[in-house]
Design a protein that fits this description.
This protein has helices spanning 4-12, 27-31, 51-63, 73-84, 89-92, 183-190, 209-215, 277-289, 295-307, 324-327, 330-344, 364-368; strands at residues 103-106, 114-118, 122-127, 131-137, 140-146, 153-163, 197-204, 221-233, 236-247, 253-254, 257-258, 261-273, 292-293, 346-351, 357-361, 374-376, 388-391. It is an alpha+beta fold.
Length: 394
């Protein structure tokens, strides 16, 4: 249903904290090969490093705390144990560290530089160095924007399909079948082959359910959910948001075989490494809000919609959906953030002067003593993320 395209943009405009999973969609393979594909675009650029950048990169390499490496909690733990064997000269003499000597550096999500990306069908503002891949046309568009290492990103396809009968999946040219036709089943099936586990933590029904139904009036909505989940892909553990609408379709039974299909619309996912999703959410939200179809796309889409007798006024509508990340049970996030800190041997501290939250090495507060600048964060502050790192003194 081409009408669903309008919803995607509506959903994209939401995402003040809407996010999704890192899991590479099955469609990614088709993004990179095939005679009938539209062009695949990449927008990765290397920026020149300043002396300060080089110092920050050196610190990243020593602590293993950049956005990609921090996603592997196993690596964090190993690095933290190594750094834990180092003691500052002040501490070894039984003295507290002078706060003026504390090394604070911004996290990647707090130092994003933006650049414009465009093709014939849409425009997007992305963090500098990120890649954009896409395929399709005004009838069915699919795109994905990711960090260079793939550990942070956003994926969107306006509509997807699954067979109702598993025995008919290959005959219908589908890559999956769904028995129940639910959003949860769709995402668990979609990522079953690429993840070690996929654990749903919480879900909610976004506010624009009626809006989506109005765009696709001929097919009743079977299920509409936004899911907050954690996952493990290879050695990388992550978390994110999955959102989709499953439309009820008619069964087409011929000689006992069901040729019916499910139509899954407005598929949006955003993801980040576990323990960093809250912090990356504002960046992902800005990326999502920047998405715009071009005039060429809108013209092509309206031509298709008119031929099908569908509404033509809803492309690039900005009707927001409920900010699903805000609607989750925040205790889930707090537990995940604490778990990440525990495995990596970190503690989070609040800077009373700036109001910022930092992720510091375990034992930092003991090292500085009672100097009143940094204090432990509260449980609720774990849901706010952090803006930088405090490295161990050498």
């Amino acid at each position: 249903m081409k009408k669903a395209l309008s919803v995607i943009f509506a959903s994209l405009m939401v995402s003040a904290m809407l996010s999704g999973c890192k899991n590479t969609p099955p469609e990614q393979e088709s993004l990179l090969s095939g005679e009938n594909q539209s062009s695949v675009s990449s927008k990765a650029q290397d920026s020149e490093k300043t002396d300060d950048d080089s110092q920050a990169e050196s610190a990243d390499n020593s602590d293993g705390d950049d956005s990609g490496e921090a996603s592997s909690e196993k690596k964090e733990s190993s690095v933290s144990q190594d750094s834990g064997t180092e003691a500052s000269s002040a501490v070894s003499q039984g003295e507290n560290i002078d706060i003026s000597d504390v090394s604070v550096r911004p996290a990647d999500w707090a130092a994003v530089e933006w650049e414009e990306y465009s093709n014939q069908y849409f425009t997007l503002t992305i963090p500098k160095g990120w890649q954009v891949q896409w395929q399709g046309d005004a009838n069915r568009m699919e795109w994905m924007a990711t960090a260079p290492d793939g550990t942070v990103g956003m994926y969107n396809i306006d509509h997807d399909y699954a067979s109702k009968d598993a025995s008919m999946m290959q005959a219908l040219g589908m890559n999956m079948s769904l028995q129940e036709g639910t959003v949860e089943e769709y995402f668990k099936t979609k990522y079953a082959a690429t993840t070690e586990y996929f654990n749903i933590q919480n879900s909610c029904v976004p506010a624009n359910k009626e809006f989506i139904q109005s765009l696709i009036p001929n097919y009743p909505m079977r299920d509409y959910q936004t899911i907050y989940a954690t996952f493990k892909d290879d050695t990388v553990e992550g978390e994110g948001i999955y959102s989709a609408a499953v439309m009820e379709s008619r069964d087409v039974v011929i000689r006992g075989a069901n040729y019916g299909t499910w139509s899954i619309n407005c598929v949006i996912t955003q993801w980040a490494p576990q323990g960093q999703f809250v912090s990356w959410s504002p960046v992902l939200a800005e990326l999502a809000a920047s998405f715009k179809y071009t005039d060429y796309y809108i013209q092509e889409w309206r031509t298709i919609a008119q031929s099908l007798g569908e509404p033509t006024s809803s492309v690039n509508d900005t009707d927001p959906v409920m900010e699903a990340f805000e609607e989750r049970d925040k205790s889930d996030t707090i537990i995940q953030e604490k778990r990440s800190d525990m495995i990596g041997e970190y503690e989070r501290v609040y800077d009373n002067d700036s109001g910022n939250i930092y992720r510091a090495y375990n034992g930092f507060l003991d090292d500085i003593g009672d100097q009143n600048k940094y204090t432990p964060i509260t449980d609720s502050q774990y849901a706010e993320g952090y803006v930088g790192w405090i490295d161990k003194m050498s």
